[in-house]
Structures are given as structure tokens and as C-alpha cells.
């Protein structure tokens, strides 16, 4: 599809590769994310061999069949090319044999012409020379074509091996995600969530096993009780630079065993875990043994991060403080650690706008929110003989993304700081909503024109990392 085609309402534009992802491809892209697909490399187009809409990404090739997206059969492509190569090699052998025969005939005719020049055999010799030149040209062309096909096959074989490796890795990731979803569903059936008074765990995407690692070097390990400090970094490059590129730089250019950071916070609100907490990665010289490295993506030399990114990082910091028993005074920027002559995490960390204070203010707010027994409650309706099954299914991805407490109890919801009501007032009534507000809760209702529309809204919020539509 050409770059100048107007974007659809559900299209996604990736500025990193300057490509659009549209329609069913966009839905698949949102569902599985960069960790599965990588960035789009081409626009969507009709493949001339299969006649199917096809789009290539960094990690996968996708095709659309009857509105459904599936992985393109890269192995089949390689097999077809191998068969074509076999046929081409046979053609080259045939031409070579014909050429050898023509050369033999030419030699015999030339000898005969020398003896019997007066009998007109020189004409036959001339004809054979012309045939020989034609055959030589055909053979040269066939050999060039064969060399190109061999190069194409080699590239295709490497691509197949790469895709097989990635597919194996993706299968493990999906299996882990499915196990996590199953755990969350079981927890939700029991009205689960963070225990009263605790900071809820933020949504964290684990990519530890997907990032580049050194082939021979490895980091040392530690016990969690050894961790006493949290170290804040900035990436010192544009926030759009993928975390995979940062890992590649640390390994290939710096010669480190793996990426130096334990967490990577992107501007869009996505938190990646990039090393296990038990790993002593290299992020703050002379102080790695007891610290956790948190990188906020972007260059904050002249301006601090946007407040939304600060709040996301603060949620992570507050949760780690709680889980690791780290006090506020031990949250330091890279430059604040001893024996580290650096400007990281940017000049605005301690000067000018002082985004350290912005971060700590947001951390305190996160800790203060836990004063109520519940932070965020998703409320569904329930009656004697029925309950909100469709609304529940519509909210599954949202709940899996943000992990709020979810249930059917108005009394429990009144103990929460924020309540999200799923569905119209035919379920949870307007009177119940007023009671929640009277109890001091912030309330937001998510209700589409039908169940499918409600699911679309909630799935979109989950994909964007947007917990609330109107609340802060």
C-alpha cells in the first residue's frame, strides 16, 4: 500500500520506520506489540504469488486470510526457491552439455574444413561458430541467473532460521502471558487485588530473555536483601529509540554481558523489565552490587520528562520501595552516587526544573494513595440470577494490563480511591454511582453503545497504557 494512502481510523503510524499498519494488521499489532512483531518494515501490499494482503515486520511476516491474520509460511517460501534453484541448475547443466557438444562439432568441422575447403564445409563451420556463440551467451546468462538465485536462497534460508528462532521465543512469551492471565483470572474470581494499604504492582512487560546478551560474558548474582538503593538514569537519546537498540549498544559497543538497566520506562507509559532484580548489572560504576537501575527513556539535559512519564516511573519506584524496603532518601540519580562523574539523568535532575523533586512528589502521591484499603476497583453488576458476564469479558485485557481489584461489591468499591464502573446504569445504577462519590471515591463509568463497543474502548485503553479516560 502506498505511503500516500489516507490512514484508516484504526491505523497505526510508526515514526521509527515511517510505515503504516492498518486494518486487521493493526489489530494484531496492538494485541501482540513490538516484543512479538518488531517495527513494520513494509507497507501492506498484495503478494503476487499468494494474492493475499501481506506485511513484513522486523520479527515476523504476516498475511491476511478472510479477515484473520496469520504468520506467513516462510519455510514454504524457502522450499519453493529451492525447487526453482534445482530446476535452474539442471538448465545450466543442459546448456553446458549442449555447449560441449557444439564445441566438439565445431572442432571436427574445422579440421574437416582445413582438408576439404573446396567442398563447402567452411559454411557449416561458420554456422556452428554462430551456434556456439549463441550457446555461450545462453550459458553465461543462465550462470548469472543461477548465482542470483543461490544468493536469494541463502538469504531466505537465513531468514527462515531467524524466524524459527523468534517463533520459538514468541511461543514461550505467549505461554508465559497465558499463564499470567490464568493467574489473574483466578485472582479476580476471588475479588483479588493489592492488599489494603499497599502500592499496587504497575503493569510491567518482562523482556529479560528477549534482549541481546554477550556470547561469553555474564553478570554476577545477588540476594534481594542486598538491594538498598534505586538509581535513576536517562537514556540520553530520543525516547523513541527502542530498548532493543540500547541493549545492543551495551553489548556490542560497550562489551557488557547484557543491558545495564533493570527497568526501562518509555514515554508512552510502558514499563519493561530488562534484568532480574537478582542480577548485578553494570549501570552505576562502583555501586552496582546494592542498586537497581531504572532508566527513564529520553534526554533530559534541557527539559525534564513529561509528567505522565514521571508518574509511570514514580509508580514503579513506589512499588519497588515497598517490595524491597528501600527508603525515600536512597532514591538517587546516577550522578549522586559516589565515584560517578556523569550528567545522568540529565542537567534538569538537580538544576533548573529539578525533575528529581517532581519524581519524589509523584512517589509520595503513589504512597499516599495506598492509605485507602484499595487503590483502584473495577465494579460490575450482579443480581440474584445473573451477572455481568459480557462486561467481564469486555474488560479482561484492561484488567490484565492494569491489575486493579475487580468484583461486584458496592461496599468494597466504597473503600477504593478510584472506581471504574463497567457498563451502563441498567447494571450498576446511577444511585450506586452517587453513593461511591459520597464515600470519597473518584468514579468513572466505561460504557459503549453495546458490549462490543465497551470492549473496544477498554482494549484501546489497555493498548495505550491509559488507565483512566477522564481521571488522573
The sequence of SSEs as H and E is EEHHEEEEHHEEEHEEEEHEHEHHEHEHEH
Fraction of residues in H or I helices: 40-55%
- Which residues form runs of ≥5 with pLDDT under 50? 1-7, 187-196
DSSP strand content: 5-15%
Task: Give a structural overview.
The chain is flat, with a radius of gyration of 32 Å. The chain starts with 11 loop residues before the first strand and ends in an 8-residue tail after the last helix. It has four domains: 41 residues, no CATH class; 96 residues; 166 residues, Peptidoglycan recognition protein-like (Lysozyme-like, 3-Layer(aba) Sandwich); 91 residues, Rossmann fold (3-Layer(aba) Sandwich), CATH 3.40.50. Helix content is 44%, strand content 15%. A hairpin with a 2-residue loop joins strand 5 and strand 6. The chain is an alpha/beta fold and 472 residues long. It has a six-stranded mixed β-sheet, covered by helices on one side. It has a four-stranded antiparallel β-sheet with strand order 3-4-5-6, with helices on one face. Strands 16-15-17-18 form a four-stranded parallel β-sheet. It contains twelve helices and 18 strands.
Amino acid at each position: 500500500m502506498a505511503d500516500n494512502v489516507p490512514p484508516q481510523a484504526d491505523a497505526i503510524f510508526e515514526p521509527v520506520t515511517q510505515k503504516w499498519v492498518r486494518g486487521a494488521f493493526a489489530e494484531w499489532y496492538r494485541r501482540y506489540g513490538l516484543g512479538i512483531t518488531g517495527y513494520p518494515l513494509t507497507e501492506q501490499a498484495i503478494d503476487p504469488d499468494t494474492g493475499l494482503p501481506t506485511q513484513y515486520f522486523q520479527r515476523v511476516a504476516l498475511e491476511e486470510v478472510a479477515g484473520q491474520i496469520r504468520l506467513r509460511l516462510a519455510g514454504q517460501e524457502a522450499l519453493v526457491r529451492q525447487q526453482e534453484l534445482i530446476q535452474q541448475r539442471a538448465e545450466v547443466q543442459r546448456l553446458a552439455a549442449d555447449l560441449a557438444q557444439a564445441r566438439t562439432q565445431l572442432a571436427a568441422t574445422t579440421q574437416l574444413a582445413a582438408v576439404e575447403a573446396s567442398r563447402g564445409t567452411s559454411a557449416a563451420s561458420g554456422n556452428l561458430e554462430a551456434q556456439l556463440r549463441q550457446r555461450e551467451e545462453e550459458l553465461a546468462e543462465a550462470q548469472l541467473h543461477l548465482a542470483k538465485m543461490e544468493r536469494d536462497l541463502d538469504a531466505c534460508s537465513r531468514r527462515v532460521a531467524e524466524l524459527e528462532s523468534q517463533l520459538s521465543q514468541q511461543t514461550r512469551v505467549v505461554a508465559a502471558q497465558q499463564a499470567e492471565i490464568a493467574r489473574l483470572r483466578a485472582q479476580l474470581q476471588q475479588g483479588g487485588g493489592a492488599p489494603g494499604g499497599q502500592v499496587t504492582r504497575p503493569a510491567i512487560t518482562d523482556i529479560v530473555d528477549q534482549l541481546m546478551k554477550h556470547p561469553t560474558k555474564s553478570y554476577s548474582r545477588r540476594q534481594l536483601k542486598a538491594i538498598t538503593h534505586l538509581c535513576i538514569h536517562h537514556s540520553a537519546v530520543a525516547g523513541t529509540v527502542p530498548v532493543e537498540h540500547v541493549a545492543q549498544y551495551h553489548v556490542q559497543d560497550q562489551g557488557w554481558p547484557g543491558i545495564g538497566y533493570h527497568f526501562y520506562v518509555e514515554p508512552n507509559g510502558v514499563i519493561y523489565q530488562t534484568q532480574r532484580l537478582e542480577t548485578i548489572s553494570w549501570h552505576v560504576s562502583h555501586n552496582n552490587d546494592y542498586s537497581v537501575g531504572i532508566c527513564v527513556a529520553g534526554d533530559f539535559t534541557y527539559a525534564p520528562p513529561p509528567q505522565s512519564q514521571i508518574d509511570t516511573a514514580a509508580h514503579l519506584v513506589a512499588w519497588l520501595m515497598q517490595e524491597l524496603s528501600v527508603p525515600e532518601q536512597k532514591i538517587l540519580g546516577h550522578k549522586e552516587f559516589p565515584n560517578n562523574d556523569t550528567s545522568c539523568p540529565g542537567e534538569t535532575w538537580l538544576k533548573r526544573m529539578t525533575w528529581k523533586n517532581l519524581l519524589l512528589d509523584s512517589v509520595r502521591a503513589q504512597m499516599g494513595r495506598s492509605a485507602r484499603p484499595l487503590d483502584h476497583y473495577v465494579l460490575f453488576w450482579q443480581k440474584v440470577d445473573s451477572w455481568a458476564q459480557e462486561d467481564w469479558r469486555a474488560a479482561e485485557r484492561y484488567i490484565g494490563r492494569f491489575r486493579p481489584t475487580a468484583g461486584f461489591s458496592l461496599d468494597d468499591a466504597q473503600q477504593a480511591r478510584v472506581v471504574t464502573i463497567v457498563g451502563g446504569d441498567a447494571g450498576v445504577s446511577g444511585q450506586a454511582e452517587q453513593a461511591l462519590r459520597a464515600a470519597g471515591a473518584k468514579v468513572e463509568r466505561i460504557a459503549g453503545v453495546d458490549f462490543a463497543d465497551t470492549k473496544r474502548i477498554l482494549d484501546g485503553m489497555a493498548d495505550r497504557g491509559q488507565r483512566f479516560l477522564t481521571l488522573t
